[in-house]
């Protein structure tokens, strides 16, 4: 072996367990596993394979992500959350058993142009207030009757909550009621819940829930004490150098951090080119020898530096956990003024994924 041992270890058993816990919160709905963006950076093929006995359906953002899954033997129907880009892609969706999100009236035309026996299953996106995708509430009442011939059993009205992680925000209730009433009046199923809504807004549980971030073990924004989710990714990197610096000496670019005492500095082989956030503040924690250590100095492209003065036993080659089993990615994200989703999806291909069971 050569090179550095910087790894994202992916615990597929944890993903299975998280899926079971989350889907059990809504026993009257089905739950699909959202594995867009390479399963939030965890590896879509591995996660899909791990969940093949659990999840009846998967969801990705775009057709190319779904084609990639098919090329690697994933057979379940796959929902395309952002729909298709052309009529030809609509035809391909039928061939490859992708479910298509229709979110503009043009999409209904593309669907109608296909022979009835060659049409993919579809969901219809309704804009209940996110104002990003979907047919507006003012239009939907005319669009649905206009394309009545395309609606079949199993067609689902879908919408997305703007504030699902805010437990007391009444906008969630407003959005949910609008979607549910619409679905009832047209005799269709609905899908509203993402992870946060699945766990704390039972009124959003529809015929399908869309489980993303909690599948990967992130539950900080989720207020449900019955859940014990496990982080799926643990990111570790080795110490490649140690040095002692004197009080008053600086570390890293722009001399932004200056030692207030004689300090032992550990240099760790990971940087922003690997997806470690460049905006992580000084004092962002990492985990070493069963305790927390603090980031010092600026994050470089390939390296970061920690104050390990209090750990007498530290040696080169020791492995530092940047986030995962002992330190939540949410906490690190907060120190970098971002969210867990961004950190997980930013872990670059330069970081090898190692898949483990349990
Ligand atoms: C990504 C995504 C989800 C999953 O959301 P989480 O917060 O990760 O659970 C659900 N629905 C849509 C439309 C999405 O794009």
Describe the structure.
By secondary structure, this protein is an alpha/beta fold. The protein folds into 2 domains: 12-216, Alpha-Beta Barrel (TIM Barrel), CATH 3.20.20; 233-356, Beta Barrel (Lyase, Ornithine Decarboxylase, Chain A, domain 1). The protein has 11 helices and 19 strands. It has helices at 12-23, 36-40, 44-50, 63-71, 87-95, 105-112, 137-146, 171-186, 195-200, 329-335, 340-346; strands at residues 7-11, 30-34, 58-60, 78-80, 98-102, 122-127, 135-136, 156-158, 189-191, 208-211, 233-245, 250-251, 257-258, 263-268, 285-288, 291-296, 304-307, 319-323, 352-356. Strands 2, 3, 4, 5, 6, 7, 8, 9 and 10 form a 9-stranded parallel sheet that branches. Strands 1, 11, 14, 15, 16, 17, 18 and 19 form an 8-stranded mixed sheet that branches. The model has no long low-confidence stretch (mean pLDDT 96).
Mind sketching the topology for me?
Blueprint: E1 7-11, H1 12-23, E2 30-34, H2 36-40, H3 44-50, E3 58-60, H4 63-71, E4 78-80, H5 87-95, E5 98-102, H6 105-112, E6 122-127, E7 135-136, H7 137-146, E8 156-158, H8 171-186, E9 189-191, H9 195-200, E10 208-211, E11 233-245, E12 250-251, E13 257-258, E14 263-268, E15 285-288, E16 291-296, E17 304-307, E18 319-323, H10 329-335, H11 340-346, E19 352-356
Parallel strand pairs: 1-19, 2-3, 2-10, 3-4, 4-5, 5-6, 6-7, 6-8, 8-9
Antiparallel strand pairs: 1-11, 11-14, 11-18, 12-13, 14-17, 15-16, 16-17
The structure holds pyridoxal-5'-phosphate.
Pyridoxal-5'-phosphate binds next to strand 10.
């Amino acid at each position: 072996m050569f090179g550095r041992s910087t790894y994202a270890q992916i615990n597929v058993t944890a993903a299975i367990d998280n899926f079971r816990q989350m889907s059990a919160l809504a026993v009257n709905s089905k739950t699909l596993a959202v594995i867009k963006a390479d399963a939030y950076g965890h590896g879509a093929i591995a996660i899909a394979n791990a969940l093949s006995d659990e999840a009846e359906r998967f969801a990705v953002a775009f057709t190319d992500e779904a084609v990639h899954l098919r090329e690697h033997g994933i057979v379940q129907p796959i929902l395309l959350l952002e729909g298709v880009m052309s009529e030809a892609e609509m035809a391909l969706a039928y061939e490859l058993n992708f479910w298509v999100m229709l979110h503009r009236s043009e999409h209904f035309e593309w669907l109608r142009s296909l022979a009835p026996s060659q049409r993919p299953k579809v969901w219809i996106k309704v804009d209940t207030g996110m104002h990003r995708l979907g047919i507006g509430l003012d239009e939907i009442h005319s669009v649905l009757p206009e394309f009545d011939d395309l609606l079949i059993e199993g067609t689902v009205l879908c919408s997305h909550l703007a504030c699902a992680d805010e437990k007391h925000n009444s906008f969630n209730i407003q959005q949910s009621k609008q979607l549910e009433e619409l679905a009832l009046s047209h005799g269709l199923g609905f899908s509203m819940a993402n992870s946060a809504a699945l766990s704390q807004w039972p009124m959003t549980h529809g015929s399908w829930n869309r489980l993303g971030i909690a599948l990967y073990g992130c539950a900080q924004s989720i207020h449900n004490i019955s859940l014990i989710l496990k982080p799926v990714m643990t990111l570790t990197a080795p110490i490649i150098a140690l040095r002692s610096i004197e009080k008053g000496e600086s570390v890293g670019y722009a001399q932004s951090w200056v030692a207030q005492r004689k300090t032992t500095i550990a240099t760790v082989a990971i940087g922003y080119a690997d997806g470690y956030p460049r905006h992580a503040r000084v004092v962002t924690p990492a985990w070493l020898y069963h305790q927390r250590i603090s980031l010092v100095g600026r994050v470089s492209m390939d390296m970061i530096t920690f104050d390990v003065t209090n750990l007498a036993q530290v040696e080169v080659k020791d492995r530092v956990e940047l986030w995962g089993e002992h330190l939540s990615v949410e906490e690190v994200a907060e120190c970098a003024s971002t969210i867990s989703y961004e950190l997980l999806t930013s872990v670059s291909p330069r970081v090898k994924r190692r898949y483990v069971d349990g």
